[in-house]
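Need tokens for this chain, all 394 residues.
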Amino acid sequence: MKIPTAVKRWSPLFALVLAGCLFQFRSVLALTQWFKKSEKPIQEWVSSAENLIQVALLLDTSGSMEGLIEQAKSQLWQILNNLGKAERNGAGPKIEIALYHYGNDEISEASGYVQQLLPFTSDFDAVSEALFQLRTNGGEEYCGMAIKTALQDLEWSAGEDQLRLLFIAGNEGFDQGPVHFQKICRRAKDKGIVVNTIFCGQSLEGIQLGWQQGALATGGHYANIDHNLAIELIETPFDEEISRLNLKLNSTYIPFGKQGLYKQQNQQNQDANASSFSVANAASRACFKASGNYVNTSWDLVDAFIADSTVINKQLELAAEYQNLSRSHLRLKIKECQDNRSAISKQIQTLNQNRQGFIQQQLASSPAIDNESLEVSFMQSLEGIAKAKGFDLK
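Here are the structure tokens for all 394 residues:
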């Protein structure tokens, strides 16, 4: 076919324009890819049973310890958020918390004034609930007996690479009571359990009362705190939005089983307990709920389905609004809630990155904020021990 002269004349120009367009497209594409690489991704956190962290928390609830309990209640979610950042071999931790109180006259003398409130559990709403139920009452404070009870009663992991920690906090002599602390601490060390001591008062007084010796006996960490210090979490411009998203997050749970509705209500109760301190505390709890460390397979059908999809084939005790759904429709509802939860959690995680940046700026200008608090002492104790086990605390 004969090509017209006009086309011949313009062909080189068309080729030049086309080449220019291709170059611009490739440049824009490369720039887009560079921006994508520059964005800080939201981590898809995966916990690993191999990265088990067991923490037994033993709190003195004698008459002078109201401040200690208040700090435990107000800083629980911040402690869990920090603990949840531990990473080893590219995976996050599986966290279990046990809770005891001691030194309270309401506890029987036969038990050495020591009582287990919770065995090792990953039901962190239950941990918060138990803390908010604590009341002080004068009594005998037997640290050795408290440690012995926790060593004997709890199902401690046997894995050598797993982190087994015991934290005991109080303000009386560490050597009181029928059980000598050095003997029981040596037994803890033989089991690979690290005892960390937190004295409520001046550091020198705690050393004189034997609290440092208790920690050193197992290679643990001794710290002191001002237990009467009123803790105020730093509020940020992102807290209100995180709290709003938390309400949407709650709507993605499908309760099942005999305790399903109770546990769902308790989830909301612990939201309210966190909010009773401050909007910052509520935001801290919401951020933990949006992490991979907050899992409720025992009562939430979404988490249970993710863990084992065959759960849907069982005879389920469901709330009234789900009872008449066919299995196929129930499966679709679970998928809808799972997708919504994932999207809301990512929004909260993004806001939390900005929130943490704001908090770090505030801490840089006021480095002495709450430096003698339970949370700070806990994390100082954890840092060296966790690193020795190969954990990276971000």
